[in-house]
Design goal:
Blueprint: E1 15-17, H1 23-26, E2 32-37, H2 42-57, E3 63-68, H3 78-87, E4 94-96, H4 101-106, E5 113-117, E6 123-128, H5 133-150
Parallel strand pairs: 2-3, 3-4
Antiparallel strand pairs: 1-4, 2-5, 5-6
């Protein structure tokens, strides 16, 4: 995905965990963070406490959606995805992308990967890898500040 491109439709999930959201649920009121992860990804698990803290800290200002992107046959077990999500405190909606439909829409190749969209649903920041929560927080705050300034 290129910067300023609109958020894709959240379609093609093989399952949803913790509730389901649509593109229209995410566009209009507040920015959105969509993060890709996988149960076989060690870096994803290491970063999850920071993602959860981030989600909780910004819960009134930011939508957060997780996308489970399988990297192997072993990653397709829904019960295991649920177990790992619970173990790591992932309470936000999880789009289970076992057929890589959303992954392909995002042209995403990485886990963990983070996409920040402004309240109008346009991509403002992308980053991949386990480190960089400070940069992510800075980008989210920039989008929030712009939103405040526009009021």
């Amino acid at each position: 995905m290129k910067l300023r491109e609109p958020i894709p439709e959240l379609s093609g999930a093989t399952a949803w965990i913790n509730g389901e959201v649509t593109r229209s649920d995410l566009v209009g009121e507040k920015p959105t963070l969509i993060h890709f992860w996988s149960i076989s990804c060690h870096l994803c698990k290491e970063a999850m406490p920071q993602v959860n803290q981030f989600r909780d800290e910004y819960k009134d200002k930011l939508n957060v959606v997780a996308v489970h992107m399988p990297r192997s046959e072993d990653d397709l077990n829904l019960d295991e995805i649920k177990r790992v999500a619970e173990e790591h405190g992932i309470s936000q909606p999880i789009f289970v992308d076992s057929e890589h439909k959303l992954t392909d829409s995002f042209e995403n190749q990485y886990v963990p990967a983070y996409y920040v969209f402004d309240k109008d649903g346009n991509l403002r920041h992308f980053q991949a890898g386990g480190s960089g929560m400070k940069m992510l927080e800075k980008r989210v705050n920039r989008v929030l500040d712009e939103m405040e300034a526009a009021k």
